[in-house]
UniProtKB/TrEMBL annotation, chains A, B:
Residues 18-79 form the HTH tetR-type domain. One of its GO terms (molecular function) is transcription cis-regulatory region binding. It comes from Sphaerisporangium rubeum. Keywords: DNA-binding, Transcription, Transcription regulation. Gene3D superfamilies: Homeodomain-like (1.10.10.60), Tetracycline Repressor, domain 2 (1.10.357.10). Residues 42-61 bind DNA. This is AcrR family transcriptional regulator. PROSITE patterns: HTH_TETR_2. It holds the Pfam family TetR_C_11.
Length: 201, 201
């Protein structure tokens, strides 16, 4: 991938276009974080907030769903390395990223939108799953499968339920209504230890 | 509690008012299930859908949030009896209700709204938690506490994490995006068995 470097000659106009794209993505994120639903969001409002013309947006994105998808995916923290020697360490890394993400009001808002609007914007929801959700799920599945293969976890581990218990427990604390207390600092450890206890030979 | 019985004399107008209330609640549920957000929902639109005047709505509800709250709570299945002799049986009953509720598109929509709009309608979200979420959570906590007290579960069980793993695993399958396959019929059993294995002495 070619990236701009200090001192490199650039095509005229390139930096301005990148700056505009960034402003457009930021404006979209801000508006969703402030409570706008995808249905309510308009290209016109985003353009006005970003200080660009509508045509600048349509040059880069085919429409609202396309733009929102880019905005959503830009907020996902990258996958952590899940190549530690033990299942526990990999699970801790995974859960810690989830817990860390939940601190951001922006991320919370945007995940909520991703969750709530799948009925209205099925294409957006499907692409969001492909880009942002499935790769993470595959990475966690692989951690558990490797643990079963190495004998660290029981050979009859119900892999889908194990993933659901680990991820779901963290979601329950971070995303589900009714948890108003600050998250315990050792939450990832507590979840990993309790759930993995049931999976050991 | 006094209830209407067949043959009982009723105050004139009472049945009509009950019918109108039911139509108003149904209209609200339908519109949310079709994708309307709380922000978008208007008393005027609900009145028109229910075939009543706006004043009929305002006679019973102080406003939109009040009406939506009644609509949401009317959809929650009642708490199952959680007085079976074993933790496993009680957990199964609890998880089965959660799984059953998720089959309804209406319920899914409405739970999504309850989740997504807590930032915009904090009062609505708070009352919804009080009425619909906390009593269930307390009931499950009590099941686990009784299991610890009776020795069926380990004395060092992390009760909050156990609740999160059980409930969160079911939510992960029923509410989280990315699970498009039909739910396995024995899902409640699989979750109960795997999570409880880690909690036994």
């Amino acid at each position: 991938m070619v990236t701009d470097q200090v001192g490199t000659a650039r095509a005229p106009g390139r930096p301005r276009s990148e700056k505009a794209e960034k402003a457009i993505i930021e404006a979209t994120i801000d508006m969703i974080a402030e409570g706008a639903t995808v249905a309510e969001l308009s290209i016109e409002a985003v353009a006005s907030r970003a200080g660009v013309g509508k045509t600048t947006i349509y040059r880069r994105w085919s429409g609202k769903e396309d733009l929102v998808l880019d905005a959503l995916t830009s907020l996902k923290a990258p996958l952590p390395d899940l190549d530690a020697p033990t299942v526990r360490e990999n699970v801790l890394r995974y859960l810690s990223v989830m817990q860390h993400e939940s601190h951001s009001r922006r991320t919370r808002c945007i995940m909520n939108i991703a969750l709530s609007e799948s009925e209205r914007f099925p294409h957006l929801a499907e692409r969001f799953r492909e880009i942002a959700i499935r790769p993470r799920r595959e990475a966690l599945r692989s951690v558990i499968q490797r643990g079963v293969a190495s004998g660290e976890l029981r050979h009859d581990t119900d892999i889908e339920v194990a993933m659901a218990a680990l991820t779901g427990a963290m979601l329950f604390f971070t995303k589900w209504p009714g948890n108003d207390d600050p998250l315990p600092e050792d939450l990832a450890e507590r979840i990993a230890d309790q759930v993995l206890t049931g999976l050991r030979p």
